[in-house]
Amino acid sequence: MQSRVNIENTQAKKLQELVGKTTPLKNASTKFITVTSGKGGVGKSTMSANMAYILSKMGFKVGLFDADIGLANLDVLLNVKTTKNILHVLKGEASLAETIVKIDENLTLIPGESGNEILKYTTEEVLDKFIEDSVQLENFDFVIIDTGAGIGDMVQKFVNASDMTVVITTPDPTAITDAYAMVKVISAKKDRVLMIFNQVGSEKEATLNFEKIEKVAKSKLKPDFSLEFIGHISKDTDIQKSVKGRFLFTKNYPNAKCTSEIEVICRKLAEKMERKMLDANRENGLSGFFKRLIKQF
Ligand SMILES: Nc1ncnc2c1ncn2[C@@H]1O[C@H](COP(=O)(O)OP(=O)(O)OP(=O)(O)O)[C@@H](O)[C@H]1O
Ligand SMILES: [Mg+2]
Predict the structure, then answer these.
(1) Above 70 in pLDDT, residue 187?
(2) Which of 13, 15, 152, 252 has its CA 20 to 30 A from that of 42?
């Protein structure tokens, strides 16, 4: 008979094999990752879109959900036209299939809706139809949710319904203060937050600033809370140009330093999500996600 240690070793080995693979797992349930920040304008939308693209290039099927209907919408950023969004689906005016936009081979944009409007139209009947509809979209490996900045009610709900939260900040002191405030609020409901430093001058600048936040988090937040640094992205004017020019930076500059920095982040993210998958035990897919979201109202 195999001893417990042996079984654990075998499992650990299997896990390492899984994590080491760049090809995604078959039949893995969709993982929902909310990208948020304390301060606005730190690069959530730019990084959500580019991370989604890189994950799709790694072979994962990725949905990019726009939960922020602010100024820089993902559809503008990705240079696609969207006429209908999730709200139309919830109102029964469009099917989910009509609203989604294919961006690239494994990458789909799901135009979202940030407001409490979602609740207004969510009758049981409509929700059932939506759930039925979303079955065709259940095969995403990851759905990246781009939210607005700050601890709004809706952002908190998206965070609660997700499997993982990524907080983006820049090294700017006010951004860091706001990021910490955000992490603190999230820690009331979640045990884990991943952190990305964007627009940094050097890796050192990112790690030193992370260590400062980590220290405060360790002393002030609940003992089982884990704040994890998953990488940095350098400040690069070409990223601004890509936003203005409405193209994906990582697609147009596959060999740029920032692209490899985003690749490092995506590998870490995928690894952390696959580890988490082993203990995943909840309703899957978009329908499961929306059920979790709506239950909070
Ligand atoms: N690494 C970077 N280097 C240089 N500029 C960057 C970088 N990342 C983002 N930017 C620029 O910062 C600006 C804000 O980016 P973005 O719209 O993605 O932020 P956001 O956090 O989504 O903002 P909001 O809070 O308004 O939703 C954009 O003009 C973008 O080009
Ligand atoms: Mg944005």
Answers:
(1) yes
(2) 252
Pocket lining: 239 vs ligand 1, CB cutoff 6 Å? yes
| Residues near ion ligand 2 (Cβ under 5 Å) | 44-45
- In the reported structure, the alpha carbon of residue 146 is separated from the centroid of ligand 1 by a whole-number distance in angstroms of 12
Residues 18 and 185: their CA atoms lie apart, in Å, by: 33
Residues 1-12 pLDDT 10s: 444 444 444 444
Q: What's the burial of 124, exposed, middle or buried (CB within 10 Å: 0-12/13-18/19+)?
A: exposed
- Interhelix angle 124-134/285-295, rounded to 10 degrees, is 150
22 in a structural domain: no
The answer to whether the CB of 231 is under 6 A from ligand 1 is: no
Beta strand 192-200 with 226-234 is: parallel
Query: Is 20 inside a domain boundary?
Result: no
Which residue from 27, 26, 31 is spatially nearest to 51, judged by alpha carbons? 31
Residue 170, class by beta-carbon neighbours within 10 Å (0-12 exposed, 13-18 middle, 19+ buried)?
buried
Give a yes or no: residue 5 inside a domain. no
- Residue 275 belongs to a domain: yes
If you measure from the C-alpha of residue 284 to the centroid of ligand 1, how many angstroms do you get, rounded to a whole number?
31
Closest atom of ligand 1 relative to the 40 alpha carbon: 25
Q: Which atom of ligand 1 is nearest to the CA of 200?
A: 1
In angstroms, rounded to a whole number, what is the distance separating the alpha carbons of residues 14 and 6?
12
Boundaries of domain holding 145: 31-295
Pick the ligand that lies closest to the CA of residue 168.
1
Q: Give the containing element (helix H, strand E) for 36.
A: strand 31-37
Per-residue pLDDT of 260-296, as tens digits, reads: 999 999 999 999 987 655 545 567 777 778 778 777 7
- Which residue among 243, 244, 257 has the greatest number of ligand 1 atoms within 8 angstroms of its CB, and so is best to mutate? 243
Q: Is 204 exposed, middle or buried (0-12, 13-18, 19+ CB in 10 A)?
A: exposed
The number of folded domains in the chain is: 1
